[in-house]
Amino acid sequence: MAESYDLIVIGAGPGGYVAAIRAAQLGLKTACVEKRGSLGGTCLNVGCIPSKALLESSHLFAEASHDFAKHGIKISKVELDLKAMMARKDKVVSQLTGGIEFLFKKNKVEYVKGAGTITAAGEVTVDGKKKLATKRILIATGSDVMPLPGVEIDEKRIVSSTGALELGQVPKSMVVVGAGYIGLEMGSVWARLGAKVTVVEFLDRICPGMDGETEKMLHRLLARQGLDFKLGSKVTSAKTNKTGVSLTVEPAQGEGGEGGEPETLKADIVLVAIGRRPYTHGLGLEALGVAIDNRGFIQVDNKFQTNVEGIFAIGDAIPGPMLAHKAEEEGIAVVEIMAGQHGHVNYATVPAVVYTWPEVATVGKTEEELKEAGVDYKIGKFPFSANSRAKANDDADGFVKILADAKSDWVLGAHIIGPDAGTLIHEAVMAMEFGGAAEDIARAFHAHPTLNEAVKEAALAVEGRPIHI
């Protein structure tokens, strides 16, 4: 007889492993099936965590090379030890994957290694052999790299984000295809370490969907750091050889317009970072009749259940922002619903962060979205150049912008570009989560001197009364 569970989670990324732990805490007999051989999914193994490790290391290298002298610290020569940098990154990943295994054991979650296929509504088969019976199945298989037609990723010369995390030497030149979060972050890493980086983007702007004013400043600051941008351009083909890659790039054709003459870009390495797509391959969903839309996303109801009773899905496999913290909150919500509680995810307060330097962090509506919706709003903006801590740190590029409803003063959105923006944004997240107003932020204590005072001043600026500008 097959071993039986209350819940089997397929996929051990941020959504899956968090869901499995929370389910076990709630008393559900839980197993988590993962084929990678290590826990944490794309995020921990080849995504969020290793990229942030390299972003931190490369940022320190750039500071030591260019900025320490301003602080009275003289270094005769800064040398890069890429092997040591990569080893540190790998150690961080190893420690964290091991930490999840410990948490599984602590919470009595069974870790099943292998590829899971749903062979019936109440049955998961692992590696085509081992059958597991269960009352419920949760799909948390995440996403995979979006391919680019005409460009074949070999993870040697033409790489995805996975390959970009494993380069054995700093390339002299790199072309990044795609000016989204991943492309800009990985492009920043290798530019700081000495590569000449060119970013090719189909649209006429970077970071689609970002608040327009914030995007323009990020573009300007990254260009100042040495990144070149070819916007409104598309890559149509790529040819590799022993020394590099030749890309054919054409102007992106506008509505009713004509494309222009193609040009050739040559680079040692090409990074394809045009986005990600749901990963549902091999799960057996078609045979079960699980509804999937034309973009590959699994369709679920407000309780995260598919059209097949007993099969649920979360994270990158379903519609919504492809963010680790979004998957985590959905993982907790869905198992709490299974346990008879009232799990809930507030999608209006999902923050997003670009971990370049300066960082960019956003939550809620952009100005463009509010204008399109006809919402009457007020703006409060404060520059880090007028923040005492930012000036003391010699890190004063950027601003905090708060958007509030013109009548109620409720915070509708916040957009921060500047030092440690990914941390600062959570003050706005909490205000929005509790239905707070800009006045609430403005009246709250903010220790001096801190970067957070810029958030307070932006909130004061909503009513036209900032103190320090």
Question: Describe it for me?
Answer:
The chain is α/β, with parallel strands linked by helices and 469 residues long. The protein has 3 domains: 3-145 and 277-345, FAD/NAD(P)-binding domain, CATH 3.50.50; 158-274, 3-Layer(bba) Sandwich (FAD/NAD(P)-binding domain), CATH 3.50.50; 349-461, FAD/NAD-linked reductase, C-terminal dimerisation domain (Enolase-like, domain 1), CATH 3.30.390.30. The chain has 14 helices and 22 strands. The chain has helices at 14-25, 41-46, 48-66, 82-107, 161-164, 181-192, 212-224, 285-288, 324-338, 367-373, 388-392, 421-433, 438-443, 453-461; strands at residues 3-10, 30-34, 110-113, 116-120, 123-126, 130-139, 143-145, 158-159, 173-177, 196-200, 228-230, 233-240, 245-251, 263-267, 269-272, 276-278, 311-313, 352-354, 359-364, 377-383, 399-405, 411-418. The strands form 5 sheets. Strands 1, 2, 3, 4, 5, 6 and 17 form a 7-stranded mixed β-sheet that branches. The protein has a 5-stranded parallel β-sheet with strand order 8-15-9-10-11. Helix 1 (14-25) runs parallel beside helix 4 and helix 3 runs parallel beside helix 6. The longest helix has 26 residues, at 82-107. It is globular. The model has no long low-confidence stretch (mean pLDDT 96).
